[in-house]
Fold this sequence. Notes:
The chain is of the alpha+beta class. About 30% of the residues lie in helices and about 30% in strands. Strands 1-2-3-4-5-6-8-7 form an 8-stranded mixed β-sheet. Strand 7 and strand 8 form a beta hairpin. The mean pLDDT is about 95.
Amino acid sequence: MAALSGGGPHTPSVVVGPVNLAARIDEALAVQALAFGLSDDEIEVRRHIVYRHLLQPAACALGALTESGRLVGFVYGMPNNRVHWWSTVVEPYLRQNGTEGWLDDSFVITELHVHPGYQGQGIGRALITSITDGVDQPRSILSAIDTESPARGLYRSLGYQDLARQVIFPSAPSPYAVMGAPLPLLRGN
C-alpha cells in the first residue's frame, strides 16, 4: 500500500493498494469515463472487456481510494499473450520497427485512469509503479493516445519509450503509441 497526501486543504489523502476491480466495476468505469471521455455505449462495451481481462491468468488490479473509500483511480494489467486482441493489433507495427520482441515476457498495463479532480498528485505514478513492482516480467508495455499529453509525460519519466507510433485500433478515433520500459520503472520526477 502506498499512501499519498492530498494536494491541498480540500483534497483528501489517497491510499493505493489491491482492489477487487470486478466488484467495483461501476466506480472504475465512471472514473475512466471522466478521464477518457467515454459515452454510455462505450462504457458498456468496456464493462465486458474489463470482466474478460480480469479472468486472465495473473491479471491484477490496484485502486486509489480516498479516506472515505471512494475509488479515484485504478490500474490493471496482465502478462502479455500474443494471441490476445491487443497484441494482434500492435504486432505488425512493432515488427515494422524491429521492436516485436517486446510482446514476449512483458507485463501489459491494460488500463490506468485517475479521476480528473485527482490528477497531478502522483496517483497515476503510484498506481503504475506499485503494480509493476509486483510482477515477474522484466519489462512493461502499454498503449496511449499518440499525442503529447500529461500521461505520455508520466510514462516517459518512468522509463517508457516509444516502440511504435500512429497505431490504429479498430473503432478508436485517434491513433495510439505503444510504449515499453524495463522493470523496475524509474523513480523520481
